[in-house]
Amino acid sequence: MNTKSCLYPNDPLWFSQQLHSRLTISNQAASWINETGSITQRLRKQYGNNVRVQVLHSQWQKSFLSESRLLNTQPKLYHLTREVLLSVDETPLVLARTIIPKKTLLSAQQQLSHLGNRPLGEVIFSYPKLTRTSLEVSHIPQQHWHPETQKKADIHQDLWGRRTIYSLNQHPLLVSEFFLASIL
C-alpha cells in the first residue's frame, strides 16, 4: 500500500475553483462542496449527535506533490496526515484527509496533534483567525480508491470531493473531504 494515503494509491485529479463551475455537479453534491462552515457541524445538524469519527490512519508522512505545492512546503518534508471516516449509525457519510505541517501544529499549540476521535472541524472552526484560502474540486472514479477503503466506506460509485487550504494564524493546513452516496 502506498505510504502517502490509506484512501487511494494516487492523488486524484483536482480542479481549481475557477474551473469547477464548468463541471456538471449535482445540486446536492454542490451544496456539500460549497459549504463554508464545518462539514461536521452540518452533519450534526442533519443527523444529530450520532456522527462518529473513525480514524483510519494517523501518522507523520510525506504528502502527494500537489499537496506539498498547495501547502507551500518541500515534498521531502513529513507532515501529520490523518484520514478518517465520518458515519452515523454505521452508515458512512464522508471520507476526509487532513495534512498538517509542523509549523501549523506549533502555531495551534499542539491542539491538532491529539484529536483522537474528535472531529477536526470542532477544533479549527473555533479559531478566530481561521480563513479559507483556496478550494479545489475532484470527481474520483470508484476504482481509484484502495479496495479496503471501498469496503469500509461502501463506495460503489464515483465520488465528488473538495480540498480546502485553511489558514490558522497564517499557517496552512489542507483538508480533503469526499462525499459518499449516503449523504447525496
Describe this structure in words.
The chain is an alpha+beta fold and 184 residues long. The chain has a single domain, classed as Chorismate lyase-like (Chorismate lyase), CATH 3.40.1410. The protein is 24% helix and 35% strand. The chain has seven helices and seven strands. The chain has helices at 17-20, 27-33, 39-47, 65-71, 102-107, 120-124, 147-153; strands at residues 15-16, 51-62, 78-88, 91-100, 130-140, 159-168, 171-179. It has a seven-stranded antiparallel β-sheet. Strand 3 and strand 4 form a beta hairpin. The longest helix is centred in the first third of the chain and has 9 residues, at 39-47. The model has no long low-confidence stretch (mean pLDDT 91).
How would you describe this structure in keywords?
184 residues; Chorismate lyase; alpha+beta; globular; 7 strands; 24% helix; 7-stranded antiparallel beta sheet
Give a concise summary.
With 184 residues, this protein is α+β, with helices and mostly antiparallel strands. The protein is built from 7 helices and 7 strands, in the order βαααβαββααβαββ. It has one domain: Chorismate lyase.
